[in-house]
Amino acid sequence: MRRLLFSIVLSLISFIAYAANKPTVYLLATGGTIAGTASSQTSTTYKAGSLTAEQIIASVPGLDNLANIKYEQVYNKDSGNVTLSDWLKLANEVNKVINDPNVSAVVVTHGTDTLEETAYFLDLVIKTKKPIIIVGAMRPATAISADGPLNLYNAVAVAINPKSIGRGVMVVMNDGIYDGRDVTKTNTTNVDTFQSPNTGPIGHVVMGKVNYHDNGRANAYDAPFNISNIKSLPSVAVVYENVGVDTEMLDNILKTKNLKGIVIAGVGDGNIPDYEKDFLINARKKGIVIVRSSRVGSGEVSYDYNNLDTTYDLIAGDDLNPQKARILLMLSLLTTNDVKQIQKNFYTY
Ligand code: ASP
């Protein structure tokens, strides 16, 4: 009896010591398909943001062997419904938990539709070298071969890996590790949807085994964007170019109250039709800052293509897709509307 008691106490002590040595990962749940449930295992319609953080964590076998998981439900929605004030709330939450010395890393569960935008936003505003990983799923938790549990397991494995330190915000999906700046969703339904068309993945993670391909690019953890005292972000529109744009529609955009910036998803190398000349001139007269991006899907926008930037005082969006160029423009506009300075930001972050 005494021997049994002794061995129970011993295993209890070693369990406590083991738990104390494990890193602590803070999971912030925001909804999405990873928290989605459907009425059948093969249904293509389901309700995103149905399961709680606690339920998601409980569905991943072995997660507690990797790390001590703390969690919080920041919101629980389809990521198509995420608002700019949700972003501020999430960023402030990440800032709060990441600054706890007992927390090694943060994992955010998120819907995939706007995941790439949240990843880039957080990359620009969170000041830490600790890993921040965003993860989602393409199939709801109730589906055959749901991808959420392994994605989350891999996300936590990446979060606690020492080689993940100082790489900024990363996205872990379908065994790939992607830089939050470069990644984009490329397929509406396939689990292999997330890609970085310009750079490729920065690493892979297979059943929790992490393998980086390089040392990672310089990241934005010290970017000069501070949202801690910000109640709202500047209004920035995205204009998608196509053949024969109705310029009256463009003129109406300029009537938008408080519009501070426009990102043009141009054709080809961020090209803008000649007949939009007055739109560009009028927008600049109103102080609206304009960034040229491209609707093409990969590649960078060359500075002053067709003399557009020097003629109309525009900014070349480098290799950011239009939705990400909008984020960098919004954050830049918090402190400046100087075109030269904002152009510099586009070449830096
Ligand atoms: N509509 C879902 C969302 O973004 C899609 C997903 O998570 O895969 O929340």
Question: What do these coordinates show?
Answer:
The protein is an alpha/beta fold. The protein folds into two domains: 24-212, L-asparaginase, N-terminal domain (Rossmann fold); 236-348, 3-Layer(aba) Sandwich (Rossmann fold), CATH 3.40.50. 32% of the residues lie in helices and 20% in strands. It has helices spanning 2-21, 53-58, 63-66, 84-98, 115-125, 148-160, 247-253, 277-285, 308-312, 322-333, 339-348, and strands spanning 24-31, 68-77, 105-109, 132-135, 169-173, 176-179, 184-185, 194-195, 203-206, 209-212, 235-240, 259-266, 289-294, 315-316. The strands form three sheets. It has an eight-stranded mixed sheet, sandwiched between helices. Strands 11-12-13-14 form a four-stranded parallel sheet, sandwiched between helices. A hairpin with an 8-residue loop joins β7 (184-185) and β8 (194-195). The radius of gyration is 22 Å and the shape is globular. The N and C termini lie far apart (65 Å). Residues 10-18 have low confidence and may be disordered. Aspartic acid is lined by residues 32-33, 48, 78-80, 111-113, 136, 138. Residues 1-19 form the signal peptide.
In short:
The chain is an alpha/beta fold and 349 residues long. 32% of the residues lie in helices and 20% in strands.
Strand content: 15-25%
CATH superfamily of the largest domain: L-asparaginase, N-terminal domain
Largest sheet: number of strands, sense, barrel closure: 8 strands, mixed
- Give the strand tally: 14
GO molecular function: asparaginase activity
Pfam family, one: Asparaginase_C
Keywords: Hydrolase, Signal
Signal peptide: 1-19
